[in-house]
Each structure stands twice: as structure tokens, then as C-alpha cells.
Amino acid sequence: MKKLIILSLIVLTPLFILAENQPIKVPDFSKAQKTPILGKLQPFELKTVQGKSVNLTQYEGKVVVVVFFATWCPPCMREVPDLMYVQKQYANDVVVLAISVDEDRQDVMKFMAKAKPNYVVTWYDKNLSKQFGSISSIPTSFIVDRKGQIVDKIMGYEGRPALIKNITKHF
Fold first, then answer.
1. What is the pTM of this model?
2. pLDDT value of residue 28
3. Which residue in 71, 90, 117, 160 has the fewest CB atoms around it within 10 Å?
4. 106: Cβ contacts below 8 Å, ≥ 6 apart
């Protein structure tokens, strides 16, 4: 056992010395959280929680904020008043389209009754991954400009000022 420890120290010590002289690269998470997505969003149709059909083409000429959320997600619920503010304040220019990834539809219906959002809330459709890629965290928002281009991806909750800035720069 003693020989194994000594052998390990002999082998590993030079590696530690080499590693100590190497600069540590820390990922730039500020860039990772907002990755611009380029590309035309193809028209899609979803069902609202009330059972109506929503088609992306009906929002042509407006900036569309597509938000993937869940009722069990605290940051998602913190974002609700901000989304309601944006929908009310910028109604002529912006449409908020929230897509629930909840598995229990009753939870969404309770949320609707309690929060009374002034924006469109739809059910998730697995075909959306073709448009938006995989959603690895929620909330995740995509900003679609007036021409139907996905121009921004925002992962996580950033607060009202950042949300407004991210949206209004695409007017």
C-alpha cells in the first residue's frame, strides 16, 4: 500500500506542476445565456388552453415573444407579471405567446384562473422542437421579429427591464 501511494505521488506530482502553470479558462456564461438564433420561423399552429387554434401567421408584423414555461417553475411564475406588463404596455407592437410544458393540464387551468394572464397561453407540442430546438431549461424565451425571424433566445428569468430591452430593440 505504501508503494502504491509513493508511486501515485511520483506520477501525479509533475501533472499538478504542469497544470498549475496553465491558465484556467472559465466559460463566459453571459454569452451562453443569450444565444442569437438566426432563421425564419416556420408557421405553426397550437391549441390555447381554451381550445382555440393559434397560428403564428396571425401575428405577422408584430414582435412575438415565445415563452416556454411551467406552473411548477418559480422563475416562470415570477416572470408572469412582467409578461402581462409587456403585453399591456406594448400591445400594438408585441404579442406574448406562452407555451406550457406542464404535464398536468389541471395545473395550467388553475394558473389561468388565479393569474388571469392577458396573453395567449398554449399547450406544448413536440413538433415545436423542430422550430426551437430542445428546451433545456425554463423559462426560455425566443424573440421573433416583425419579419418572422428568430432573433434572440433568453434562458432563464432576467427581470422586467432586461425583458423590455430585449423586446424593444427589435421594433
1. 0.77
2. 37
3. 160
4. none
